[in-house]
Amino acid sequence: MPLVSEERLVELLGRYAAGRTVVLTWLRLPTALGHAVHAVCFLTTLSVLGAVFSQERRLDLFSFHPLCMSLGTLLFVAEGVVSYRNRFLLEALADIMDGQRRSKNRAIHQTLQALGTAFILLGLLLILANKVEVGHTIMPLSIHSMVGTVAVLLCLAQAAVGFQKMAALQAMPERRVHRYHGEAGLLVFDALMLSVFLGMLSFLYFSMLNFLVEMSVIVLWGSVHVLMRSTKP
User: Fold this and answer.
1) What would you report as the CA-atom Rg of the chain, rounded to the nearest whole angstrom?
2) pLDDT by residue (tens digit) across 72-122?
3) Which of 117, 113, 95, 116 lies closest to 104 in space, CA to CA?
4) pLDDT of 131-183, one tens digit each?
């Protein structure tokens, strides 16, 4: 028997979404983003990787951790989240995909989220291997590592629910299952973005360039939520 009923979970996630809407309204972010969100995802990922490797200046287990986490979160997970609202990828790939429009969109979403989850897991394994190599404990002790651990666990749970939902929809397309999956996905995205941001604060030294890179992560974070709030599914 589940600890929380689906109805209760939907209610709790609805309250969380309402609070997020208040924050977005207070920030006065632009409401018309369109396809620009894809450029924001790509450029933010590129800027974060550039900042990390310009400081690290070598390829080792540690440096590949932010590489995988950035690709997984800032590119694939972010694109997977917006794929249901922004039709850019659907329009670009529709001609080479089989099935109806809705099934194509679900396939794009599932593929992007699966790639994101895979990179995130790889990033986790790399940082654990690095800690073992240098003789540090693998237990999360910093705020970044604790938030990151929770975020990865939520990501895995969300992925498992997502695969269950896709299987159920393929068997019975009109059946409504796991209604909380969409809002839960935004919660997981928030946790992952917070982990990335905290990781940048703890690793990158302060400079105006690094500050701008960190702000670009905030812009991406807000842009995804603005798009999800301002467009219909």
Assistant:
1) 18
2) 999 999 998 888 777 767 666 766 677 677 778 788 888 999 999 999 999
3) 95
4) 999 989 999 889 999 999 999 999 999 888 887 877 776 666 666 666 667 78
CB-based contacts of 106, cutoff 8 Å, min separation 6: 166, 169
Q: What is the pTM of this model?
A: 0.83
